[in-house]
Amino acid sequence: MSRIGKKPIEMPNGVTAALNDGELSVKGPKGELAMRFVEDVEVSVGEGGITIAPRDETKRARAMWGMQRTLASNLVEGVSQGFQKKLEINGVGYRAQLKGKSLNLQLGFSHDIDFPIPEGINIECPDQTTVIISGIDKQKVGQVAAKIREFRKPEPYKGKGVKYEGEYIFRKEGKKK
Which of these CATH numbers, 3.30.390.10, 3.90.930.12, 3.40.50.2300, 1.20.1640.10, describes 3-80? Predict the structure, then answer.
């Protein structure tokens, strides 16, 4: 019995959901998102919100139950509040700035990195060492943050690189004489 799957997804004010042929579409103040469910779960939209249940007692149906409920919950949260990730840039001369529809990163390479901003994603740079990625699709926001971090991951000796806000970097001691 899935503890997560049993909970109904509550609909905040201003958010509506519609179910057509196994595809859930959710509209809210921030936009519209849709997702297709696997055949192993049954979805119903009612006054209490969205409920998801397994069609039968197979192992796959029970495994998909909680995951599909979480994905549907992410749709509702995305169209009502949105998602956000913050990246911090540490290092001498490392900086980020917006240039039109791309993010310009200077990360100690011989060249600057121009990262094109994907559709549906909003990037802000309040200062040169902070990048804020926001959008309504949780998967896209996380993927863009991971791609930017991948350009220069934080190294364990001085901690230079791009890291998530609040991320702990395991530090190593330097060379001994």
Answer: 3.90.930.12
